[in-house]
Specification:
Elements (H helix, E strand, L loop, with lengths): L7 H21 L3 H9 L8 E4 L2 E4 H30 L2 H18 L8 H23 L2 H4 L5 H28 L11 H17 L1 H6 L15 H14 L1 H32 L2 H30 L1 H21 L3 H29 L7 H29 L2 H23 L14
Antiparallel strand pairs: 1-2
Length: 436
């Protein structure tokens, strides 16, 4: 049964998936977990060095390496899982599996202390894998629930729901972390660990809304030479290879995603390590980013309709380059606050617009949405692997400021490809370049 496009109830339920899992993205990857991790793993005896199964790492480098491994595993798995989901018509089942896996891992982080470092690193990596898998299958619903002319708006709505939901939970966690005495909490590690538990509960509870409303996903009517999920993957791969515009966009997306995703994952660690902002200031800064990002997502969607998605992305990537250069020189909390506002404006916009732009490049009415979006998500995940690994590698051999500056090279490469893409003729979606 085919899903009716632009149905408000369906779109709202789909957006609630962003609401549910964005709490992980905010609390675990951006604020409380990295701040808590950096604090408990920095000791007078060993400084910022930690031992992980007998191997010694810089604390922030270890967390970045572990995330890069998680993203690499998912990048290798997702194409096969998505092709199988398209073939069998059960992508919602995969959404549920990754959601339950990720939320459970977050709950287990409640037991993470310095003496259980290995548990914390492993659970944080598994939580990341759950988040990655759920998002990919959620993204694949976009071309099914929204027509081409509505995809920018619907994509922005999803990100806006995510930012709002994550901020609400973050404020609750914020109270526990900053005012533990209100609740009779004497163990200072308890409040952040309670936050990790709440993220897992929030994630799994609100995910039930999209799980109850979204269709399972109709199986693809395959040709005789496509007998299983692996052959389905090969079929979609051949289609992607023949789509010049789509390939070029994915290449540009890869390079600027290296920078965008890495900055989002390391911002809190950078603020704590270089500026010693403390958990309270870090949470406030990330909350500012999330609130501003809501407006940024809608702003970029509106600009995309006026001057074209690719042109907007070009300007946004230029801003990201300026952010990387600025991060190298900042030395005060006030400067970090200003930079956070700028990051917020372009963060929501670049994620939302990238997702809808890719969706518009897909063939109209394609049934293999999970398989096509696996290429999009694998591109992003490989970008994160490269970004985190290079960031950690440079930090271990010089410093974290040089790591931030090096990200500008990835943005610059993506910018060049976008400029050439804007000049490419023959796109079937001319509105992606300009509506004039």
């Amino acid at each position: 049964m085919q899903t009716v496009k632009n149905d408000k109830k369906t779109i709202r339920s789909w957006a609630m998936f962003d609401w549910s899992n964005s709490a992980y993205n905010l609390v675990i990857t951006s604020t409380i977990f990295p701040a808590y991790y950096t604090i408990i793993t920095t000791t007078e005896e060993h400084g910022d060095k930690v031992s992980f199964f007998g191997f010694t790492f810089v604390n922030t480098a270890l967390s970045n390496y572990s995330l890069s491994v998680a993203y690499l595993i998912m990048a290798l798995l997702l194409p096969f899982l998505s092709s199988s989901a398209d073939y069998h018509g059960n992508k919602k089942a995969y959404m549920k599996f990754f959601t339950y896996m990720g939320s459970l891992a977050c709950m287990l982080l409640f037991f993470f202390k310095l003496e259980t470092l290995e548990l914390g690193i492993i659970c944080s990596a598994i939580a990341a894998m759950g988040y990655i898998g759920g998002v990919m299958f959620s993204n694949s619903y976009l071309p099914e629930i929204a027509s081409v002319d509505q995809q920018d708006r619907v994509s922005a709505q999803g990100f806006a729901y995510g930012y709002i939901g994550s901020v609400l939970l973050q404020i609750l966690c914020f109270v526990f972390v900053l005012k533990p005495e209100w609740f009779g909490i004497t163990d200072l590690s308890f409040a952040p660990r309670l936050s990790f538990l709440l993220v897992g509960v929030w994630w799994v509870l609100f995910a039930q809304i999209p799980f109850s409303k979204l269709p399972a996903g109709p199986g693809v009517q395959v040709a005789k030479n496509r007998k299983n999920g692996y052959q389905e993957l090969l079929y979609v791969f051949r289609q992607v290879k023949s789509m010049t515009i789509l390939k070029r966009f994915l290449l540009a997306f890869f390079f600027y995603s290296v920078g965008v995703q890495t900055i989002m994952l390391v911002a809190a660690s950078f603020g704590e390590k270089e500026l010693h902002l403390g958990t309270e200031n870090l949470i406030i800064i990330i909350l500012i980013i999330q609130v501003v990002a809501i407006g940024g997502a809608y702003l970029m969607s509106s600009l995309g309709r006026k001057i074209g998605n690719i042109n907007v992305l070009i300007w946004v990537v230029c801003v990201w380059i300026a952010i990387c250069i600025s991060a190298y020189f900042i030395s005060t909390a006030q400067q970090f606050y200003v930079l956070a506002v700028v990051v917020g404006i372009v963060m929501g916009g670049v994620q939302s617009l990238s997702r809808s732009t890719y969706s518009k490049f897909l063939p109209e009415g394609t049934p293999d949405t999970a398989s096509f979006f696996s290429f999009y998500d694998v591109t992003e995940k490989l970008a994160i692997v490269i970004g985190l690994a290079s960031f950690a590698f440079i930090e271990e051999r010089s410093n974290i400021r040089n790591s931030a500056l090096a990200l500008s090279l990835f943005f610059f490469t993506g910018l060049i490809i976008l400029v050439f893409l804007a000049r490419t003729k023959g796109s079937t979606k001319t509105s992606l370049i300009s509506e004039n």
